[in-house]
């Protein structure tokens, strides 16, 4: 009876990890060989792990990553020209903590989006908020938001996320409204939050593109 009351109280307090751990200890005779301090430490560890997993699940759901990628699975074959030490350094996510930006360029099929999502996944695992956006679709969304009056709210949402992933920069012609909206998004985040951009367009052609040129 006392056991059921304890379990009920744990669940009412939303200590679901501890509740599951307590039930496991009751069902496992090995727990009887441990001291009170050891058993209690196990319960605390299980609650911590439970909450950590829930937080990661929530962050990944909010990130809406296009690819199920992680840095441990990065392919370092010679032809990809990836610097393993640089990737390891970026995986620490200190660049995100300092509000720095990252650009990944390369041809179609080179794995830019996958790598971008791997860094996004890593940021989520370190407790940071992430949001993935295909830039052409984001610009369409922002254009619509001007009409329904939600542009400022949408801009604020994009400004607050720790890491914004902008995929497919330079795809298609950028009109004046889209150019202004993109620059506004970048300006709101500059120096405060990090942005990771992928593009087929070489960086030395970005100025022309943003000045009214196209991606060809």
Instruction: Enumerate how many helices there are, as a single number.
Output: 10
Helix content: 55-70%
Tally the structural domains.
2
The CATH class of the largest domain is Alpha Beta
End-to-end Cα distance, whole Å, is 74 Å
Q: Uncertain runs with pLDDT below 50, 5 residues or more?
A: none
Strand order of the largest sheet: 1-4-3-2
**CATH architecture tag of the largest domain:** 3-Layer(aba) Sandwich
* Named CATH topology of the largest domain: Rossmann fold
Determine the structural class based on helices, strands and strand pairing: alpha/beta
At the fourth level of CATH, the homologous superfamily of the largest domain is: P-loop containing nucleotide triphosphate hydrolases
Account of the 3D structure:
This protein is of the alpha/beta class and 216 residues long. It has two domains: 2-62, no CATH class; 65-210, P-loop containing nucleotide triphosphate hydrolases (Rossmann fold). It is elongated and about 75 Å long. The protein is built from ten helices and four strands; from the N terminus they run αααααβαβααβαβα. Helix 9 (176-189) links the parallel strand 3 and strand 4. The protein has a four-stranded parallel beta sheet. It has helices at 2-12, 16-27, 36-63, 84-90, 94-97, 112-125, 135-148, 151-160, 176-189, 206-210; strands spanning 102-105, 130-134, 163-169, 194-199. The mean pLDDT is 90.
């Amino acid at each position: 009876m006392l056991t059921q009351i304890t379990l009920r109280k744990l669940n009412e307090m939303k200590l679901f990890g501890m509740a599951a751990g307590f039930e496991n200890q009751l069902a496992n005779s090995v727990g009887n060989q441990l001291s009170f301090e050891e058993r209690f430490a196990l319960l605390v560890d299980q609650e911590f792990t439970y909450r950590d997993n829930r937080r990661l699940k929530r962050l990944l759901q909010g990130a809406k990553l296009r690819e199920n990628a992680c840095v441990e699975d990065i392919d370092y074959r010679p032809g990809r020209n990836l610097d393993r030490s640089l990737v390891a350094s970026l995986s620490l996510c200190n660049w995100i903590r300092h509000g720095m930006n990252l650009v990944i360029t390369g041809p179609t099929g080179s794995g830019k989006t996958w790598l971008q999502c791997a860094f996004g996944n890593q940021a989520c695992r370190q407790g940071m908020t992430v949001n993935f956006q295909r830039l052409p679709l984001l610009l369409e969304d922002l254009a619509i938001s001007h009409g329904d009056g939600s542009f400022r709210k949408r801009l604020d949402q994009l400004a607050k996320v720790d890491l914004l992933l902008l995929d497919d920069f330079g795809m298609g012609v950028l009109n004046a409204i889209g150019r202004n909206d993109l620059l506004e998004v970048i300006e709101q985040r500059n120096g405060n939050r990090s942005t990771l951009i992928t593009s087929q367009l070489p960086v030395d052609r970005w100025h022309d593109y943003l000045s009214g040129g196209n991606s060809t």
